[in-house]
Known about the structure:
elongated; alpha+beta; 4 helices; 4-stranded antiparallel beta sheet
Amino acid sequence: MQKRTTHGFTLMEVIGVLAVIAIIASIAAPQIFQAIKDARLTGTLQQANDLRTAVARYYKDTGRWPTHYPTSNTATVHQLMRNGANVNGWDGPYLEQELFNELSPGSNVGVFYSSSDSWTCDLDGDGNQDGEFVVFRLDGVTSDIAIELSDMMDNDGSQTAEDAKNWADAGRVRHRSNNVLSICLARV
Length: 188
């Protein structure tokens, strides 16, 4: 009678392999999540730059500042993509694709002109609002993400909670306590 041999792994070998996989995952996971966050920030910056160009072209063609809310009535407020309001001089579309909130997918996003102090920017950081602006609004953006974006756009440097008011009110990026972020695109 022949002796039967079995092929396979012992419990200790399986546990060892799982431990190695867990160690590799614990090292790689934070870097993967940081890369995803960096990609979202970069996408938002690119979208803001594209919007700045689109807003300027729209104004040059029509003599008006656009309103663009992707989640609203498409006939009248998608002015960068459609001439639903029959605006004279419109020569769009000014955007190739619809706006998307990279920083908080599914949250509201929009472009609008405002004379309200709550939507203006202090570009020179002197504590006074610098006029009226066309802004890019993004809802659902946490203060940590907003600080990073502000640092990228306004070169604010690393921020702490104590001087959060300074970065949140100065420069092109403004952040409110209700997690609404606005990026000033053009001074009116």
